[in-house]
Amino acid sequence: MSVESTGHFASASEEPTHVNPNYVGIAAFLFVVTILEIAITFQSFPLGFMTTSLFILMFLKAAGVILYYMHLRYDSRVFTYLAMGGATVATAVILAVAALNNILPGQ
Amino acid sequence: MAAHGGHPATSLGLDMRKLGMWTFIGSESIFFGTLIANFFRWRGSSEGGLGPENLDINLTGAGAFVLLMSSLTMVLALAAIRSGRMKQYRLWIGATAGLGLIFIGIQTLEFTTFALEGLGMGSSLFGGAFFALTGFHGLHVVIGVIWFAFLLIFRVGKDIEPGEHVSSDNHSFVSVEICGLYWHFVDLVWVFIFTLIYLLPAV
Amino acid sequence: MATLTRSLPATRTWQTDVWSWITTVDHKRIAKLYLFSAAAFFAIAGTEAMIMRTQLAQPDAAVIDGALYNQLFTMHGVSMIFVAIMPLNAGFFNLLAPLHIGARDVAFPRLNALSFWMFLFGAIFLNLSFFTGAPDGGWFAYPPLTGKEFSPGTGMEHWILGLAVLGTSSIISSVNFIVTILNLRAPGMKMTRMPVFTWMTLVTSFLILFAFPPFTVAAVLLLTDRLVGTGFFNPAAGGDPVMWQHLFWFMGHPEVYVLILPPMGIVSEVLPTFARKPLFGYTAVVFSGISIGFLGFAVWAHHMFSVGLGPIANGVFTAITMLIAIPTGVKVLNWSATLFRASIKITTAMLFAVSFVALFTIGGLSGMMHAASPVDLQHTDTYFIVAHLHYVLFGGSVFGILAGIYYWWPKLTGRILNERLGKIHWFLAFLGFNLTFGPMHVLGNDGMPRRVYSYVSGQGWDGWNLLATVGAYLTAVSFLLFIYVLLKGLRGERSAGDDPWDGATLEWATTSPPAVHNFDSVPVIGSNRPVWDGKYEGSPVPVDAAAAESDIHMPAPSYWPIIVALGLALGAAGVIYSYPMSAVGFVMVFYGIIAWTQESTVGPPARPSGSGVGH
Question: At the top level of CATH, which class does the domain C21-558+599-605 belong to?
Answer without folding.
Answer: mainly alpha
